[in-house]
Amino acid sequence: MRTRVSFPLALLALVFAALPLRPVWAISYCVGTIADLKAKLAEASTNGFSDEIKVRSGFYQPTGAQCDALACFEVHVTDGEMLRISGGWDATCQAQSTHPQDTIFDGSNNYRLFFVEWQHANIDSATISGFRNIELRNGLGTFGSSNGGCAYFSNNSGDLMLDRNVFTGCAVYNGYGGAFAASALQLYVRNNLIVNNVARFGAGAYLDVTRSTLVASKSSYVTNNTVADNLSTLGSDGTGGLQLLSSTASVSQVYLSNNILYGNDAGTNRVDLDIGTARIYSANNIQGTQRGIAGPGSTGAANLSLDPRFAGDNNYALAPESRARDRGKDSPPGGAPSLDLSGGARVFGSHIDIGAYEAHDDVIFAGDFQ
Questions:
Q1: Is the separation of the CB atoms in 219 and 246 below 8 Å?
Q2: Residue pair 133/192 in contact by the 8 Å Cβ criterion
């Protein structure tokens, strides 16, 4: 006997078949205490869903008793799903501030703050895990892994975005990545302020881009960051600013666009950028000293070597006379961010500005993060 399906039911079946098995971000958590954040991170790591953890605005300073083995907030994502952590949320997590300084985590110069590791291939390849709109300060990388003073991020089977964060006062005296160390299959680092951190190598930040450059369809993008006044404890053999780790067998590039890499101290050699042997694209950056040998296929143009002229007094916004204004690439590889670190719109002048802050003369003091 032939079964007859009415048109409306058949159409409904097709609609349901076309729907994804789960929404892109299936679970959203709203947290406002250290204990609650730790509990939700643990739950998110194994629940089999893509998770977003929204942290309410506030000041979070964990004690030693609240910290885990590798950091105060340690999570190993074993379900192969996405995880995003963002700050600046109101009490109901319905509205978000655009200022990372509204959500501060302080390591008291004793503890690394975050250790986030994704341990399996990502199931949902259409989304990107991330860490966004948060200030990390005064972290100390002394736990187990020697990399990352305030944070360590590892997503070698998926993509990761670090966007609109402040890292300051972080240290890992005998390791890599004063502010943070990060690796991913495809890494986006944009609109971050990375200042006054300490490490032997990559006192600003340490980016392991080995996996992304070995896959032809993947690349890593470092865009519109300000990396300044960081210090290498190794002296002239260290790296005061940004350090890249890559493979000599790279088949894709690391794209560096619209960054300020300036005033980072490595003893007698002021090394602001160490590219190692990375295959890089570098354009429209303001940078001091560069070390390393660019790999085959590297390209670049229009970099500047000059004082970016910050506003001063621990304020890394651009002064009125700064030559970083209107000197960036409006459509850099990997895309330009729509907002700057202070929440102002990009582009404000004739072209996008270089660094984490877009110059809006009426809010020039927004860069003072103290």
A1: no
A2: no
CA distance 43 to 78: 11
The residue type of 225 is: N
pLDDT at 188 over 90: yes
d(CA 279, CA 254): 6
> Is residue 89 within 8 Å of residue 134, measured between CB atoms?
no
Q: How far apart are CA 139 and CA 150, in angstroms?
A: 4
**CA-CA distance, 64 to 172, in Å (whole number)?**
17
Residue appearing with tokens 């002229």: 309
Span of 74-78, 116-120, 365-369 with lowest mean pLDDT: 365-369
**Who's near 91: CB < 8 A, 6+ residues apart?**
32, 56
CA angle 294, 153, 248 (to 5 degrees): 25
Predicted TM-score (pTM) of this structure: 0.89
The DSSP 8-state label assigned to residue 45 in this structure reads T
Q: Quick check: 367 pLDDT over 50? A: no
